[in-house]
């Protein structure tokens, strides 16, 4: 299987303190048309991994080692200008907060059209009709093209973010907790929309979440992160159905189930530290 | 009925919003529309709903932190709306709240010992050394140390801060505790710890909980009964196992159906 994205030995540290491994030797791969979920708790390094893949690490952090191979090219050798050409065009991005990722003083049509103008050179009628088509595709009436972000609900804003991210028909979509801020019924709609778009456009999707329920719904493959390291990865049925690593098992024991039949068991970190040695 | 520690009925809360050109018009929103809920002694009633459904307004109105436009709240047989300021303060000793955000709900300039002990001081319970002893005992009970009294909230993690918030509420030995999304800001492993702690304390202290949450998996685990809110109304209410198994209302079905982890979307 040829991989759309291959991460090899990715390591991220603070620039001032290279001993502290925030992301520690992370490797995994993603194929076209598949969804890989990175799951972990806060501080596990899942968001930093995504930022490092896109070359968007904050300036206080550095990618100390590792390669990000996308469509056969090592992105870590790319110049900032080359990366700008990849981001938004070949790799789409969606973030958690639809409230803060949109510009409040520009209408949504302009914001969706921006990447089409920049990357594909569209303008005038062609641009307008493409923006309308994108809005319809994500379930927003094209008549709302002149609306401003504050006139939309949280779910609609996330739909706008999705329209922006898929505008240039990227080969890969990186979504960092895209439904965490949303109500549960809206979350279900957005997950269904993403799954449908992924299928139709044959995108690879890298989906970051802390919610095992979401993982069970959308993942083909799962990468479990803990303290910067990948502790377990594999097909979703294996990782959720027959977890091998003590941390994965412990984390799954913390998740309440909808039937209420499973007793909650908090993580015994002392035991976990011992068994890690 | 003595079986219920808290009964509320006809609760109505209307918010007026400026609207139209330059805000000269006004629209009204019924945040609570003729809501009735009751909490059984020693049990947990969970109020579930999505954002804007009115569940947090309900919590605040039940505690009289916000005035009601109509309705009655009977706590241990007394109508809270009929109490004057000092009577209400006295009643609140037995009616405590645990808040959602463990970062915003603790005064950053106060030491943990003072935060937890403040209620004892206000209600004039015990002398200084007795108060100190009760604070220490409560901190230890929620999994913190006696030495933590001298620290400030910023020295603690989110889960530890929520333990401080729980100690602050429970040191007064309340009868009813309103928990407003107490674990929604926490990681799932910390969430499990806090939920188990709340359950243990309920058993030990005979507490009744009004548990507000948007997370239907957490609610299934915590509640004896649930009230489903939608647009300011309680659309369905009853035994949690029965409602999860056989929801009667369309909205409840939709909500339960949206719990992630039930439908494979990938192929």
Would you give an account of this structure?
- The complex is a heterodimer of chains A (277) and B (267).
- Chain A is α/β, with parallel strands linked by helices and 277 residues long.
- Chain A is built from ten helices and ten strands.
- In chain A, the strands form two sheets. In chain A, strands 6-7-8-3-9-10 form a six-stranded mixed sheet, sandwiched between helices.
- The model of chain A has no long low-confidence stretch (mean pLDDT 92).
- Chain B is α/β, with parallel strands linked by helices and 267 residues long.
- Chain B has a domain of 79 residues.
- Helix content of chain B is 35%, strand content 27%.
- Chain B contains nine helices and ten strands.
- Chain B has a six-stranded mixed sheet, sandwiched between helices. Chain B has a four-stranded antiparallel sheet with strand order 2-1-4-5.
- In chain B, α6 links the parallel β7 and β8.
Lay out the secondary structure.
The complex is a heterodimer of chains A (277) and B (267).
Chain A (H helix, E strand, L loop, with lengths): L4 E10 L8 E8 L4 E5 L6 H9 L6 E10 L2 E2 L5 H7 L4 E4 L13 H13 L3 H14 L16 H13 L5 E5 L7 H18 L2 E6 L2 H7 L2 E6 L2 E7 H6 L4 H9 L14 H8 L1
Parallel strand pairs in A: 3-8, 3-9, 6-7, 7-8
Antiparallel strand pairs in A: 1-2, 1-4, 4-5, 9-10
Helix pairs in contact in A: 3-4, 3-5, 4-5, 5-6
Chain B lengths: L3 E16 L5 E16 L3 E5 L6 H8 L7 E6 L2 E2 L5 H8 L2 E4 L13 H11 L5 H14 L16 H13 L5 E5 L7 H18 L2 E6 L2 H7 L2 E6 L2 E7 H6 L4 H8 L10
Parallel strand pairs in B: 3-8, 3-9, 6-7, 7-8
Antiparallel strand pairs in B: 1-2, 1-4, 4-5, 9-10
Helix pairs in contact in B: 3-4, 3-5, 4-5, 5-6
């Amino acid at each position: 299987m040829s991989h759309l994205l291959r991460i090899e030995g990715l390591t991220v540290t603070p620039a001032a303190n290279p001993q502290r491994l925030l992301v520690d030797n992370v490797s995994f791969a993603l194929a076209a048309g598949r969804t890989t979920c990175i799951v972990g708790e806060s501080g596990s390094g899942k968001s930093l991994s995504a930022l490092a893949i896109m070359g968007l690490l904050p300036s206080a952090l550095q990618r100390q080692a590792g390669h990000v191979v996308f469509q056969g090219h090592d992105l870590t050798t790319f110049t900032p200008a080359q990366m700008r050409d990849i981001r938004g065009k070949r790799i789409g991005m969606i973030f958690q907060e639809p409230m803060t990722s949109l510009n409040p003083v520009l209408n949504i049509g302009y914001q969706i059209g921006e990447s089409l103008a920049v990357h594909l050179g569209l303008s005038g009628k062609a641009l307008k009709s493409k923006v309308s088509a994108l809005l319809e595709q994500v379930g927003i009436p094209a008549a709302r093209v002149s609306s401003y972000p504050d006139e939309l609900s949280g779910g609609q804003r996330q739909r706008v973010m999705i329209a922006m991210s898929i505008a240039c028909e990227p080969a890969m979509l990186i979504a960092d907790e895209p439904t965490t801020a949303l109500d549960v019924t809206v979350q279900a709609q957005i997950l269904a929309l993403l799954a449908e778009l992924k299928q139709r456009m044959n995108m690879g999707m890298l989906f970051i979440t802390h919610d095992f329920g979401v993982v069970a719904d959308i993942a083909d493959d799962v990468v479990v992160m803990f303290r910067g390291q990948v502790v377990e990865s594999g097909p979703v049925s294996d990782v959720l159905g027959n977890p091998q690593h003590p941390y994965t098992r412990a984390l799954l024991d913390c998740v309440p189930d909808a039937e209420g039949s499973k007793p909650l068991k908090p993580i015994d970190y002392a035991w976990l530290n011992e068994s890690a040695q | 009925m003595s079986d219920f520690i808290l009964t509320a009925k006809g609760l109505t809360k209307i918010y007026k919003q400026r609207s139209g050109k330059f805000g000269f018009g006004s629209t009204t929103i019924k945040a609570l529309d003729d809501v009735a809920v009751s909490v059984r002694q020693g049990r947990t009633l969970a109020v579930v709903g999505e954002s804007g459904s009115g569940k947090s307004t309900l919590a605040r109105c039940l505690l009289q932190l916000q005035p009601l436009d109509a309705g009655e709240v009977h706590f241990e047989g007394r109508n809270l709306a009929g109490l004057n300021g000092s009577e209400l303060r006295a009643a609140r000793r037995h009616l405590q709240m645990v808040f959602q955000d463990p970062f915003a709900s603790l005064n950053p300039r106060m030491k943990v010992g003072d935060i937890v002990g403040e209620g004892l001081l206000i209600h004039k319970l015990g002398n200084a050394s007795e108060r100190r002893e009760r604070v220490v005992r409560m901190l230890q009970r929620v999994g913190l140390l006696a030495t933590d009294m001298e620290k400030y909230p910023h020295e603690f993690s989110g889960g530890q801060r929520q333990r401080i918030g729980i100690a602050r509420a429970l040191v007064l030995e309340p009868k009813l505790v309103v928990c407003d999304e107490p674990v929604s800001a926490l990681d799932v492993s910390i969430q499990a710890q806090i939920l188990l702690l709340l359950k243990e304390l309920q058993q030990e202290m005979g507490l009744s909980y009004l548990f507000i949450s948007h997370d239907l998996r957490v609610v299934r685990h915590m509640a004896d009964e649930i009230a489903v809110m939608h647009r300011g109304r309680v659309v369905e209410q009853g035994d949690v196992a029965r409602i999860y198994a056989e929801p009667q209302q369309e909205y409840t079905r939709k909500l339960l159906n949206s719990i992630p982890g039930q439908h494979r979307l990938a192929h």
